Amino acid sequence: AVIGRDISELKNTQEKLFKAKEKAEESNQLKTEFFNNMSHEVRTPMNAILGFSQFLESPDLNDVKRKQYVNIIKQSGNQLLRIIDDILEISSLETKQVKTIDKEICLNDLLLEKFSIFEIKAKENKIPLYLNKGLTDAESAIITDPIKLNKILDNLLENALKFTNSGFIEFGYKIQNSDIELYVKDTGIGIKPESQEIIFERFSQEEKSLSRNFGGLGLGLSIAKENTELLGGKITLQSEKEKGSVFFVTIPYKRANTIIEQNILDNEIDSKQEKHTILIAEDEEVNYLYIEILLEKSKLNIEILHAKNGEEAVEVCKENANIELVFMDLKMPIMTGFEAAKQIKVFRPNLTIIALTAYSTNIEKEQALSAGCNAFISKPIDKESLYEILYESLAIKE
After folding, report:
1. Confidence (pTM)
2. Which of 45, 290, 349, 390 could be joined to 79 by an S-S link, Cβ 3.0–4.6 Å?
3. pLDDT, mean of residues 188-212
């Protein structure tokens, strides 16, 4: 009896080892396919950027063609940026470097913003897009991490657009017990039952042919799932092959106590004629020029000062007590932005410093905040994000 039990246990152990080996081999195979696919996904937009950049050098290029080529370069750049963001995001999630930063937001406003962005894309695909809001604006004032929620919705809506060739796409939310149940519904290609169990796993796509036919790295749904869990929620789906899918994201309904401002920019109109002095600490001339142009286009009365390294930034702040805002690149020669921010805060503790960072991990962002930076903008710099921080920061009086 003892020998029989030992043999049985040995068989169970062998079966477990065999299954573990199979899973490891499957995981390695998925990663290999992912990296091969990534090479293709990166090279495709890069080819367009380099190729059409060369075409722009042609002296006999007319304005119509020039505009067309610039748009192709811009779209390809955004495509490449999304790929890089997804890879960095999954890396941060894997190493547990991601934390939530809760804020008071108007959920209806966030969804309307999503609608305005994705409606343009849906019209290009000739697919109607519908939005269903489950609460009044006042009731939709909630506490959550808007960046995480945006990423979740972006991935689900991008997914719906990618796989829907006819019919419609609808998204919205309703209150379910003490939770908010958001959903994205499409009439796309659907997902077969056996694939629904693995669709949220990293590097997974329902079929290998999907990456060839539709593009993508197979990270979007995994990122959506892990961000949903960070918000204390869960993600599920209902799907039928060739009929479409519905993705449900359930997060806690935390009501905000204060009334949320509808638009920060609207509240700053009165201050537009007041002169503001801003320092840009940036060693790369191209980056400095880009920020300078954005600030000039802001319609504010701005005097711009420039420092090319951290040491200069400290000296300029000492010599100009009227500086209200600093855009600080973190990686500069002679003295880093981290050290410069730390030194500036000694004699100007209330000065607003915005970190300009190409870093994407929470560790670097936390280091920037610890050094004295009030907020950060990731590179490449998004115009709307810069303007939002600009107006919000200038409303803070020392």
Report:
1. 0.59
2. 45
3. 71
